[in-house]
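How a chain folds remains the central question behind the approach discussed here. In the encoding step, the backbone of a single protein was reduced to a row of integers, each denoting a local shape. We regard such an encoding as a compact summary of how the chain folds. The sequence in question and its structure tokens are set out directly beneath this paragraph:

___
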Amino acid sequence: MKKKAIFPGWVLLGLAFWICDALTTQTCEAFTVQEPVSEPTWKVRSVEQVRETIIQWKTLSIELPEESLEQLQKVLGDDQRLANEPLDVAGESIGLLFQDFDATISGLEQPPNFGDTKSLAAQPIESIERLPVSVQATARLVVGRGLVRLALYDEAIDIMRELTADDVIDPASLYFYRALALHRLVRPKECLVGLNQLLQNENQLPRRFAAMGQLMLADIEGVKPDSLDEIARLMQDASRHQSLSRSGSHVLEIEKSVLAKLDKLIEEAAKQQEQQQQQSANRAPPSSPMDKSRSMPGRGDGEVADRQIGEGGAWGNLPPRERAAALMEMTRDLPPHYREVIEEYFRQLAKEK
């Protein structure tokens, strides 16, 4: 018998990302890659291209303090960072050249005020719009990556949505972080498009991007519509919104979608159970009856109290506690994580009510 995994692959994927993203390209293990099937539609920027772009930005800035110029020269002279961390270099350079944007980057590195995430996302946009046009796209990517790292995936998608590989200094980061946000938002079709774009240049990507891209691809391809796996992921996303103190129409839509999908699963499970009971009832009776007829001991007056479970007994009208109990019965043979996610989801939902 095949042994079941303790945790679903997407949980391990999340842990792997945060570990691998913290490492440099030298410390991540090599990842076996395949040759691309067709010619890539975008190219990884060379060290010289990155350096030349930043030098062009320098001509657009006002007169800089001597200290900032020295820092910028140091950044531009580090070929290893230009090759391995072009987006870090770009963000640092924009901060040196346009000091108003430096405050925006610093703000993203701090834990956000979860009660005011709209202003957290709006502030960088105001700073970006004051930058020269040729700098704005890469600035958006820098901010988008920061929002992804703060688990503000919706805002990250909004700020990176219209960017293309030709717009930014580091196309690999654009495709990677946009696909990651879509993966966490459980949007498989869009995520698959982004991952396929990313992996067109798999042999030239930083190793962590290539490895995580392949893991995300394998994971998101396995998500089936209306499956318990998809429902658990949507619950995780709803819980993320709750932790950010959000309760708007978008969050309500996620919760309605989760409940509708659960209704469908329960209905299918009930039909399957009914079929099994019918099959059992149609089986041949035992060849030898009981040797004695006797009444079974018991107590009570034989009356059964009426129980109100909602109009028509619909699953969608059950109280959260009874709904969760039914789901526990459904998931008793699945990895524990699914039950934990479902329990936590309904616990938070009950608090909102």
About this structure: The chain is about 60% helix and 0% strand.
